[in-house]
Design goal:
single chain, 113 residues, mainly alpha, two-stranded antiparallel ribbon, 4 helices, 58% helix, elongated
Length: 113
């Protein structure tokens, strides 16, 4: 048995947002139109991740509300922008550190490294 690599919270968060933004709604539509007796046996196989709320009004029928895809896309974009800024900040810090070492060591020490 192989071990699964544990995902970081950031990876899980990103995957969840991608699922909300790009996930399918076919199973939700199937749930909406399925006969009453077929719903419970099929629930375990359905992907209902994008659903935020299900209501059954007294008069009959079913109401399904979905998570906002645009909000999920905005969150994804903000997360990717933050990751880009982190990488840029790391690179800038690395570059500044290299300049300090270069200035302290002088030009003659460059070849010895």
């Amino acid at each position: 048995m192989g071990r699964r690599k544990k995902k970081s919270i950031r990876q899980e968060y990103t995957e969840g947002l991608r699922h909300l933004a790009f996930g399918e709604i076919q199973d939700a539509v199937r749930l909406l139109y399925a006969p009453e007796e077929q719903i419970l046996p099929a629930l375990g196989e359905m992907d209902l991740f994008n659903i935020s709320e299900i209501k059954r009004p007294k008069g009959g029928g079913m109401e399904i509300k979905f998570f906002d895809r645009l909000k999920a896309l905005e969150k994804l974009q903000a997360l990717e922008a933050a990751e880009g800024n982190t990488a840029a900040a790391f690179y800038q810090a690395l570059e500044a550190g290299a300049k300090c070492v270069w200035q302290e060591g002088g030009a003659g020490d460059r070849d010895s490294v």
